[in-house]
Amino acid sequence: MDKLHEPLSCQAACGLPLALEVMGERWSFMILRAAFNGVRHFEDFLDELGIARNILSNRLVRLVEGGILKRDHCADDRRRVEYCLTLKGQDLLPAMLALRQWGEKYAMGVPANPVLCDARDGIPIAPITVRAHDDRIVRPGELVWRDRLQCTGHDLDALVKSDA
Amino acid sequence: MDKLHEPLSCQAACGLPLALEVMGERWSFMILRAAFNGVRHFEDFLDELGIARNILSNRLVRLVEGGILKRDHCADDRRRVEYCLTLKGQDLLPAMLALRQWGEKYAMGVPANPVLCDARDGIPIAPITVRAHDDRIVRPGELVWRDRLQCTGHDLDALVKSDA
Lengths: 164, 164
Prior knowledge:
Chain A contains 7 helices and 4 strands, in the order ααααββααββα.
């Protein structure tokens, strides 16, 4: 693990605080998870999560303000409001599934039911792994921190552009 | 997103609550992150995180009880205590990096400095993605929930065994 040392001064500016703000709050996380499951309407979130009305209302406002959910009028009934994941919200899927898989592995020893599968062939998705630029799986001991200036622009762009 | 619907009754038993308990609390997360960065001693956590002594003490106990960190006497100085990541703790790396990458992408538009690289070639790691069993990248709209009984044992084992 010693190779994995990051200078102290950088620990505040690494992007985790924002992610934590969204994912670190239990109800926000559960709302997000329901949104990934196709839940869109206030009353449906209420039913599925067993959450208090005022808390749900508060968290939905925060998720919309944070650009994770988009509040819209339904196409088929303009009086109804629906909450959909934005692209930014959809991009939370790898983090959410990595957390879920970890919980399954250590909380239960078997995957939860139902199982998330590839729609194309119905086979369960693979464990989420850390990959090198050429797709090799990288383990914690095989990682090292480098200054951005030592990395080429092309390499860095890959980390912030939309998925290939 | 409609394909991604999970029956309500299963939402409580999916393994997320355990993961949330560990990752969802801001200080626990920051302690874990420091541990991934090679921090091992109480006083070093204290210095690096700017955390109150009693909170650090409390969170370390909880992380040890949760099997995420192991409390040990240093090999070179038996009077000193060190906290190291267990295998269960190390397995949180994909989730932690997925969260970090998301925060980088949306909070700053550029990766934080320093950049986490593959030690072998010094090139930044790839964005964390969701993969099918045959390693194809799968997107949110290409996922479907299936009952465990419809999946073969082999497929399910892949999700809970140690990384290949």
